[in-house]
Amino acid sequence: MQNNTILNEGKLLYTQKKYDKALAFFLGLPTDSDADKIEVSYYLGLCYTKLERYDDALLFLEQVVTSGGNLERTLQCRFLLAVIYALSGRKRLADFELNKLLETGYMTASVYAAIAYVAWEQNDTERCLSYYEQSLKEDPDNVSSLNGLGYVLACQEKDLTRALSLCKQAVKSAPKSAACLDSLGWVYYKLGLYKDALQYLQQAEQIDTMNVEITEHIKSVRLKSGH
C-alpha cells in the first residue's frame, strides 16, 4: 500500500523553495519505499526544473506524462516539457507538446506565450506576434506575453509606444524579473533614451549577472550613448 505521507518533508522543502534539499530528500528515498513512484518522479522533475538541470528533469517529467495518471499533473508536466524543449533548442518537440496542450485547453494564455517564444527562436516573427496577441486576449495580465510582445515589437522597431507600455506593465507585475527589466531597457534604447535604458539594463544585470544578452544590450547602449 502506498504511503504518501512519507513525502511530506520533501514537499515542504519544495514549497519553501529549498530545491537542493528537496531534491536530496527525494533522491534519498529507499528503493523499497512505500511512496508513490510517479509522485516521486513528479517532484524530482520539478526540482530538477527549478535547478535548471533540464536533461535530468526531462527523464522524470516524461515518466509522469506517460503514466496516464492525474490529468492536471500530466498537463503541468507536459507544459514543463515543452518549455524545456524550447529552452534547449528542441523546437519541434516543443511545438508538438504545446499543440497537444492547446487541444486540452490547459493554461491557454501560457501555452500561447510559449508557442510565441518558440516562433521567435525560429525567426518566425509574424507567428510570434500573433501568438503573443492571442495570449493577451486570453489573459491581458500574462507577464510572459506582456514582456515578450513588448520586446519583439522593440526589436522589430514596430509601435515602440505600445512596446514601452507593455514592458512597463510587465515590470510593474514582476519588478525583480531580469528578463522584464532587460526588455524595458531595450525599448528605451530603441527610443533613443539611453540613460533610462542603461538604468533598467543594469538592474537586470545585477539580478542575472551571467546573462550574455543583457551584457550585449548594455554594450549597445554604451556604444550609442558614448559612455
UniProtKB/TrEMBL annotation:
SUPFAM superfamilies: TPR-like. InterPro entries: CellSynth/LPSAsmb/PSIAsmb, TPR-like_helical_dom_sf, TPR_rpt. The keyword Repeat applies. The keyword Repeat applies. It comes from the Bacteria. Keywords: Repeat, TPR repeat. TPR repeats lie at residues 109-142, 178-211. Pfam families: TPR_12, TPR_6, TPR_8. PROSITE patterns: TPR. This is TPR repeat-containing protein. It comes from Treponema bryantii.
